Records
---
Amino acid sequence: MSDTLNRISEEGANGSSMMPVIQGVGRAAIEIAALLRGAVFRGALGLAGGENVQGEQQQKLDVLSDEIFLDQMRSTGHVCAVGSEEQEELLVIDEYASAPYLVLVDPLDGSSNLDVDGPVGTIFSVVKRKSASDQRPDVNDTLQAGRDVIAAGYVLYGPATMLVCSVGSGVNGYTYNTNNARFEISHPDIKIPQSGGYYSVNEANSAQWLHGMADTLISVRHTEKLGMRYVGAMVADIHRTLLKGGVFLYPADAKNTTGKLRLLYEAIPMGFLMEQAGGKAHTGEQPVLDVQPEALHQRVPVYLGSCAAVDGLTA
Ligand code: AHG
Ligand code: MN
Ligand code: MN
């Protein structure tokens, strides 16, 4: 079996159809990684001056990464539309409006880390269109529960550039090898440790958490013997949780009563990976993958990680 992204074509029922799309994600990752490395010298750090649909300040690199990702999805020829954190409406790819797949994307996750040279990422999931191929795709094609996701993953722009993804047959991690300019398998068949690890949360919000979550967390972190790590970029915090165990959580609070993180391009892809790696993904009310999406940018509370820790926080 190949040690590059090409091995995806041999993975389960979805591998061959997903390989071109994930190769496109890989090409976007390489371009975005290069953009990030040189940003400070091209005045590309800092705010773009606009806001995204959630009223959040857009970083210049949010906008540039979104453009790169869309172009690479177009180049696959298999994607008819992209739902992006950085675009209010669904972006239909006119030249391929009859193509079978839609991609949901957070083109640059954790962008508040950019100005301090912290890790950031890209998060994506892939769904099969519900509309007929001779119709124009629309937002209803994206509103599919995580159980129907075909593939999902993330790119982590850290000391190395990693692509971690699943097509429904387990989770594999690939690291970009600069010697031969391609992603190579480095973390085959990732399974989340079911004990130990870290809890990962922005504890500054704990006084506003709902339903006594602050006390519950104190109890769980004791019984599960968890350390604490928080990077402030979901991709980095989830990657560590997948490899070391524990739980990442962003609870609802008095300010964000439905949580902060977005269902379609943060919670569902990460929840898909967590379940594929033997972990759990919960909103506090139901499994993340059971939530029926109602809007492109809706938010949910998330508890993602080792089974016992997630159960302790949500049961
Ligand atoms: P994004 O940069 O795509 O808006 O995502 C930021 C998210 C997520 O990456 C991270 O887990 C969370 O915001 C951090 O939120 P706080 O700064 O409120 O802790
Ligand atoms: Mn994000
Ligand atoms: Mn983002």
Note: DSSP finds six helices and 15 strands in the chain.
---
Amino acid sequence: MSRKAFQRILSRAGVSTLAVVVAFGLGFAAPQAVAQTKQIIRISTPAVPDDWHAKMWTVFKENLDKSAPGQFDVQIHLNAALFKQGTEPTAMARGNLEMSAISAQDISKIVPEFSIFTAGYIIRDVDHQQKVFNGPIGEEVFKPVIKKMEVTPLATAYLGTRQVMLREVKDVKTPADLKGVKLRMPSSKEWLFLGEALGATPMPMAYGEVYLALQTGTIDGQDNPLPSARAAKFYEVSKTIVMTSHLVDAVFISISSKFYNALTPDQQQKVKLAAEAAARYNNANRVKDEAELIDFFKAQGLKIVTPDVGAFRKAVQQKYLTSDMAKTWPKGLLERINAVR
Ligand code: KDO
């Protein structure tokens, strides 16, 4: 074929003259190579722009653009703008979304035994969390996720340690002090169970509605890690933080298996490394924030309450261990999690 004829075909396909010249200059590259398009990676998250697990997606994008130049078009959608909170796993399984950071509660809906990670006071701290999920236990518990959900977890991001925040000034020492408190929880039965275990009256609500609900008094409080409370400005409409530290929370950076399995091994490796870099960035910043934020909130006029964490731990653990949920937990897993040091 002459260069002119080739150029006519390609220009109808939207390929520029420059690309044709370059292709011929390189010794006639195959038309597919010339017209190669980037693979689109759509990301959806309810995270607000100022939060670390929103910013981590830019780290993901930059890493991938660097390691696999020209191969991917990473599109980041924050504030649940693309998919509603909690609907991301289904969207990924169906191939309508490529990536998200999903919660243990999302996973438990399909993989009930994963609910062990939704239980309060099981994971001790960020180091424990990272060791559990990056070690043999992680490998084991992610297998049914990949199999049943058609979603592949790539890295574990520390969301932070959840604390209770209330819109009024209140002294809370034990779960009994939360009796009748309308505590917003994310909308799933695993989350509501946690709210109940804390002694409160849980109210399901999407993350994006929490600020207004606190402002208007539709709810009395909500629980989230301190960095998220700063980023979403919940402190502007709260007066008390009760340092219950009830859940050392994670979100799992995950990818649609349909999409991931269609990548070359080299691309898979690069996507995974980029996800790990994003998680590292998030984790380091959240840990730093958690150490500094108490002072920030105090300066904003909030009352910081140190409750009887032992009383909360005892009540919450008791409620979980005697629940139907615990019956789905693989035998010996709790002991193995506890033994990770
Ligand atoms: C929330 O809705 O309280 C929560 O913290 C739950 C998490 O699993 C996660 O979805 C998170 O919101 C969002 O990423 C927003 O920070």
Note: The chain has a mean pLDDT of 92.
